[in-house]
């Protein structure tokens, strides 16, 4: 113990920066500490701050405020609290006074910038510094790993054709800003075991910020004799307005390096090499991102970058499938039959709606048929199968990439249970009950079973209510479709748009109805999203989750479940319900007894599903980019309008610059994941209807990576660094969507497209037994006797076109497989219908079994953790144990030799005067 205390003393007197002036200041402090050894820790800290200020106060210039250090230029600013002093609110003043006093007792050092120096002459800035004793104590509490030896395991990874990837590489000092070390959880008793060349730089700024925030979130703002023990944590002080904001500082301005050589200027390097659109083809500096923002943000960008890379392969295959549809455009026999004036012009189709819609000829759907062929061809089946396998490859390779990052970022031994031991301050505050933990044998707060059940029931009822609200809105959109189709048909019959040369034939009642309904549906989606986000946060707060991890997982499931229904319900309706329960002429089915169920576009429902998918997907991506980039920029611009007067010579301090930026909330990363997972659903669940969806997602994500980097680096305050070894609950959600995507695409190919009916006709019902599709259109249409139409189904006078003559035309055709009028089973389904239904079900079963079989085989073939990483992890653990063993043996040998030796009285005196410990908050242990 004496030797360890001696090491503490020697480290304390070392200069953290190597300069002579700094040595003088720190030696002066050490003398002061030795003189005040009999005083308490709080007295020591209070007297230390003015001492340094007095030593360096005469040399302080205005330029020193544009840095991340205290006025003395030595102590680093680890956190900043901002507040406006309201003299009429004594309660806030009392809270701040008690809170800051408790922070000093916890060992933190404080320095206040007067409001006269602020931009608005109203805001105070409280700067916080964590000295070595505090960092060391809480690093041990949080089990922070510290390097003890440079990693000497050779890296055997070789990239094939390395020279091809050189244009995409970044400089080595950007990609790997720090050497690779062997690390071990920090232990104050083994301080000489670790590589500590400078105590001020042992813990990087992101780790220092995390430690300080950990203290801030658990420090109380009541007196020791106060009965109300739940008044604690910076979050509550922010909520009640005691402080305006709390944030760590950026290390420099993003457009220029810091003028202080002790600042790393990592923000500038990130902006220059990562956050610019011109770097879209460059790799991401993940190690620098992790070092500056922490592992949680680093692993998000690693996942987003890997997802974007994998999208490239899906986009290429999807583009090839689309091109195949364009190339085979002229081989589309059934579309030629529809467009043929002799065939399609002679087939009279039954009305698609009552009263306002008359009879029409089949060749009027010529354009829609050609459009449908671009997405409804043989390539669609191949692409649906490919995407089922691609999803598996994406998830399996991501697990391997994640395992490699865990090793490289020293997260192999980091368990989520470590986070679960760290209770949320809100949980500690709101849970008044206490009980013994059977594992730790300590009293801990808990929520009673009755209260927990009541809160969960209320939460579940709220979620069900909002999902029901979505279903009601979708029903309203369906009713809109049914109500306005007839109106569009009546209005557009003689509309001037029908006479336009290029687009006149494209503007049809079906297209107008589909586009307007999709736009209305998108507007409803965005409004419900805006409202539900606040409801989801409220009910999650009401449940009082125990840990931050549990809080995020609960909110994740609520938000995803809601948005899944919100975004995909309209696509599910068009794909699997629209046109499936229409009935037939003379016996139609009605919604609410008045509105006839909606039929598919004459070109098929697939083109309508494509339209719906494109509008919702593209609209969401455009709106998301505007919301993410433009809104923070506009807010910062608006705030800068009240900037300093050019004649004001006061320095625009770094803490004021960061205070004027937008706050990156704890849920900021949550919304980024949610946006990408919803996009993942669009390109997997319904990709059989739109092979270009991965290409659109790829273009968006290339921009998304740089937009997210730009806003995080330039428009937001520096987020709190936190650890994470994976993407959390999102991985399970992605796995679930991967399984569901195989099912949905199989059903889309079977029931939404015309692929299966065509194949059945080609191989079974082709009259000439030739491998052609001639006669398919006539075969797929049933015949109805017009005279059997009920009066309420008869079109109104004037709605029928001029060429229609009821005395000549006695029958009409409709899409279905039913017996004609006069047959003993008239209007019942023919045997061909049941053959087609059996073929559809057989295709679903075969496709699902094939894809799931390949998925299982691929997952089995590709291990989640690369063998190389497993070997390196085992080797590192062995070496760590070996070094620890040798260290303990050497330490014991030195202690035994000292016990047999002579100890000078000087050593004994020094050890006694420096044997001090930092007060640790009880909630942190």
From TrEMBL:
<feature type="transmembrane region" description="Helical">
    <location>
        <begin position="463"/>
        <end position="491"/>
    </location>
</feature>
<dbReference type="GO" id="GO:0046983">
    <property type="term" value="F:protein dimerization activity"/>
</dbReference>
<keyword id="KW-0812">Transmembrane</keyword>
<feature type="transmembrane region" description="Helical">
    <location>
        <begin position="300"/>
        <end position="327"/>
    </location>
</feature>
<dbReference type="InterPro" id="IPR007632">
    <property type="entry name" value="Anoctamin"/>
</dbReference>
<dbReference type="InterPro" id="IPR049452">
    <property type="entry name" value="Anoctamin_TM"/>
</dbReference>
<feature type="transmembrane region" description="Helical">
    <location>
        <begin position="841"/>
        <end position="862"/>
    </location>
</feature>
<feature type="transmembrane region" description="Helical">
    <location>
        <begin position="676"/>
        <end position="698"/>
    </location>
</feature>
<keyword id="KW-0472">Membrane</keyword>
<dbReference type="GO" id="GO:0005254">
    <property type="term" value="F:chloride channel activity"/>
</dbReference>
<dbReference type="Pfam" id="PF16178">
    <property type="entry name" value="Anoct_dimer"/>
</dbReference>
<feature type="transmembrane region" description="Helical">
    <location>
        <begin position="727"/>
        <end position="751"/>
    </location>
</feature>
<feature type="domain" description="Anoctamin transmembrane">
    <location>
        <begin position="289"/>
        <end position="876"/>
    </location>
</feature>
<dbReference type="InterPro" id="IPR032394">
    <property type="entry name" value="Anoct_dimer"/>
</dbReference>
<feature type="transmembrane region" description="Helical">
    <location>
        <begin position="378"/>
        <end position="398"/>
    </location>
</feature>
<dbReference type="Pfam" id="PF04547">
    <property type="entry name" value="Anoctamin"/>
</dbReference>
<feature type="domain" description="Anoctamin dimerisation">
    <location>
        <begin position="69"/>
        <end position="286"/>
    </location>
</feature>
<protein>
    <recommendedName>
        <fullName>Anoctamin</fullName>
    </recommendedName>
</protein>
<dbReference type="GO" id="GO:0005886">
    <property type="term" value="C:plasma membrane"/>
</dbReference>
<keyword id="KW-1003">Cell membrane</keyword>
<keyword id="KW-1133">Transmembrane helix</keyword>
<keyword id="KW-0325">Glycoprotein</keyword>
<feature type="region of interest" description="Disordered">
    <location>
        <begin position="1"/>
        <end position="25"/>
    </location>
</feature>
<feature type="transmembrane region" description="Helical">
    <location>
        <begin position="559"/>
        <end position="577"/>
    </location>
</feature>
<feature type="transmembrane region" description="Helical">
    <location>
        <begin position="511"/>
        <end position="532"/>
    </location>
</feature>
<comment type="similarity">
    <text>Belongs to the anoctamin family.</text>
</comment>
């Amino acid at each position: 113990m004496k030797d360890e205390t001696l090491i503490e003393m020697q480290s304390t007197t070392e200069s953290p920066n190597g300069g002579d002036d700094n040595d003088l200041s720190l030696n002066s402090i050490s003398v002061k500490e030795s003189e005040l050894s009999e005083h308490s820790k709080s007295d020591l800290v209070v007297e230390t701050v003015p001492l340094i200020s007095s030593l360096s106060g005469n040399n302080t210039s205005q330029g020193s405020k544009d840095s991340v250090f205290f006025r003395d230029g030595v102590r680093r600013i680890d956190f900043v609290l901002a507040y406006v002093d309201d003299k009429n609110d004594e309660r806030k003043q009392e809270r701040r006074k008690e809170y800051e006093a408790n922070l000093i007792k916890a060992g933190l050092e404080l320095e206040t910038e007067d409001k006269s120096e602020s931009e608005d002459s109203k805001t105070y800035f409280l700067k916080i510094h964590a000295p070595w004793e505090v960092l060391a104590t809480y690093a041990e509490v949080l089990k922070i790993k510290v390097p003890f030896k440079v990693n000497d395991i050779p890296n055997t990874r070789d990239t094939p054709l390395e020279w091809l990837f050189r244009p995409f590489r970044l400089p080595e000092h950007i990609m790997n800003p720090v050497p690779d070390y062997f690390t071990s959880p920090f232990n104050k008793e083994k301080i000489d075991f670790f590589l500590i060349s400078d105590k001020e730089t042992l813990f990087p700024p992101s780790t220092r910020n995390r430690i300080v925030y950990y203290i801030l979130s658990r420090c109380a703002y009541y007196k020791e004799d106060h009965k109300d023990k739940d008044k604690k944590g910076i979050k509550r002080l922010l909520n009640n307005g005691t402080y305006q904001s709390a944030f760590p500082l950026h290390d420099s301005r993003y457009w220029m390096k810091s003028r202080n050589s002790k600042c790393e200027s990592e923000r500038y390097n990130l902006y220059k090499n990562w956050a610019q659109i011109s770097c879209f083809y460059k790799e991401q500096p993940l190690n620098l991102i992790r070092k500056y923002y922490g592992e949680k943000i680093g692993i998000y960008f690693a996942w987003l970058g890997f997802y974007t890379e994998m999208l490239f392969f899906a986009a290429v295959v999807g583009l090839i499938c689309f091109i195949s549809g364009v190339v085979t455009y002229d081989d589309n026999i059934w579309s030629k039959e529809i467009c043929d004036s002799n065939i399609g012009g002679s087939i009279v189709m039954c009305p698609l709606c009552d009263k306002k819609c008359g009879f029409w000829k089949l060749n009027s759907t010529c354009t829609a048929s050609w459009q449908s062929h671009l997405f409804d061809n043989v390539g669609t089946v191949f692409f649906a199968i490919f995407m089922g396998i691609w999803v598996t490859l994406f998830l399996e390779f991501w697990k391997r990439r994640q395992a490699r990052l865990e090793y490289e970022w020293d997260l192999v031994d980091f368990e989520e249970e470590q986070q679960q031991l760290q209770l949320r301050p809100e949980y500690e505050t709101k849970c008044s009950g206490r009980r013994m933990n059977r594992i730790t044998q300590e009293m801990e707060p808990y929520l009673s079973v009755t209260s927990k059940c009541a809160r969960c029931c209320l939460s579940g009822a709220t979620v069900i209510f909002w999902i029901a609200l979505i279903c009601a809105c979708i029903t309203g959109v369906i009713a809109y479709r049914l109500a306005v189709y007839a109106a569009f048909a009546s209005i557009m019959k003689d509309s001037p748009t029908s006479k336009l040369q290029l687009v006149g034939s494209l503007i049809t009642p079906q297209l107008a109805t589909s586009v307007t309904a999709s736009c209305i549906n998108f507007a409803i989606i965005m409004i419900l999203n805006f409202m539900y986000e606040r409801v989801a946060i409220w009910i999650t707060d009401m449940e009082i989750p125990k840990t931050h991890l549990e809080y995020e997982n609960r909110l994740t499931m609520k938000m995803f479940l809601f948005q899944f229904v919100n975004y995909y319900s309209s696509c599910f309706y068009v794909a699997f319900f629209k046109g499936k329960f229409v009935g037939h002429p003379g016996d139609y089915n009605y919604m609410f007894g008045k509105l006839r169920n909606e039929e598919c576009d004459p070109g098929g429902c697939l083109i309508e599903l494509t339209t719906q998918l494109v509008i919702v997907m593209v609209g969401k991506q455009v709106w998301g980019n505007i919301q993410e980039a433009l809104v923070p920029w506009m807010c910062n611009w608006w705030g800068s309008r009240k900037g300093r007067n050019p004649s004001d010579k006061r320095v625009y301090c770094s803490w004021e610059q960061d205070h004027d930026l937008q706050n990156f909330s704890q849920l900021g990363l949550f919304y980024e994941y949610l946006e990408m997972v919803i996009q993942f659903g669009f390109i997997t669940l319904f990709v059989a209807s739109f092979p270009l969806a991965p290409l659109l997602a790829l273009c968006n994500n290339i921009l998304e990576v740089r937009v997210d980097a730009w806003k995080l680096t330039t428009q937001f305050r520096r987020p709190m660094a936190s650890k994470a070894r994976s993407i959390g609950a999102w991985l399970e959600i992605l796995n679930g969507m991967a399984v569901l995507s195989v099912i949905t695409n199989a059903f889309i190919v079977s029931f939404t497209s015309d692929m299966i009916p065509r194949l059945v006709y080609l191989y079974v019902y082709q009259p000439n037994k030739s491998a052609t599709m001639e006669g398919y259109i006539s075969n797929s249409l049933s015949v109805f006797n017009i005279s059997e139409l009920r009066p309420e189904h008869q079109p109104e006078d004037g709605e029928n076109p001029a060429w229609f003559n009821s005395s000549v035309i006695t029958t009409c055709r409709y899409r279905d497989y039913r017996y004609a009028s006069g047959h003993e089973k008239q209007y019942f389904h023919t045997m061909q219908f049941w053959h087609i239904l059996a073929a559809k079900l057989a295709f679903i079963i075969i496709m699902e079994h094939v894809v799931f079989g390949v998925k299982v085989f691929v997952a089995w073939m590709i291990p989640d953790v690369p063998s190389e990483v497993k070997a390196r992890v085992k080797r590192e653990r062995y070496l760590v144990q070996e070094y620890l063993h040798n260290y303990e043996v050497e330490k014991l040998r030195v202690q035994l030799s000292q016990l047999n030796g002579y100890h000078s009285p000087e050593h004994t005196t020094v050890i006694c005067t420096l044997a001090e410990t930092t007060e640790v908050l009880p909630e942190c242990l």
